[in-house]
Write a structure and sequence with these properties.
By secondary structure, the protein is α+β, with helices and mostly antiparallel strands. The chain contains five helices and six strands.
Length: 154
């Protein structure tokens, strides 16, 4: 066995140990069964700004097209992504005006609200062919997470 072969063999063994530690089931034929939670974390990592699908796939020993399939599942709502912990993005307050100069602030970023006497209607987020409906009291932080998960950029 050459030094190059030994090095590749060690790297593969290390990768397999790493994957097993994360709960990936590796069968005797080399086929891997990835838990949905791990898939979701890998997809979320690949959606970060400035990160390439190829780099993330290589980090986990995946083919880029395999990761792209998981990303498509997330966009279609078949794979639920973890909550985003990024606080740098928030929505501005929603202001409703009748044109007469009087305006009421209905929602402030990060605070789910239901003003007394007003009904909170469902919110629809439509991006491309995807439409997501959420409860009217859903926080702006959660809505931002959903928008990011389906690949839209503010």
């Amino acid at each position: 066995m050459s030094d190059g072969d030994r090095c590749r063999s060690f790297a593969m063994a290390t990768t397999l140990e790493f994957l097993r530690d994360y709960g990936v089931d590796i069968r005797t034929n080399g086929q891997r069964r990835w838990p949905d939670e791990i898939k979701a974390r890998i997809v979320a990592e690949s959606l970060q700004p400035g990160v390439s699908v190829n780099a993330v796939a290589a980090r986990y020993g995946l083919r880029a097209n395999h990761l792209s399939e998981w990303r498509s599942r997330a966009r279609d709502g078949r794979l639920v992504l973890p909550a985003v912990e990024d606080d740098s993005f928030c929505f501005a307050p929603i202001v409703v005006s009748d044109g007469g100069g009087g305006a009421d602030v209905l929602a402030v970023a990060g605070q789910p609200t239901k003003p007394d006497g007003l009904s909170c209607k469902p919110i629809e987020i439509a991006i491309g062919r995807v439409t997501i409906r959420v409860d009217g009291t859903t926080s702006s932080d959660r809505i931002a997470e959903i928008v990011r998960a389906i690949g839209a950029r503010p």
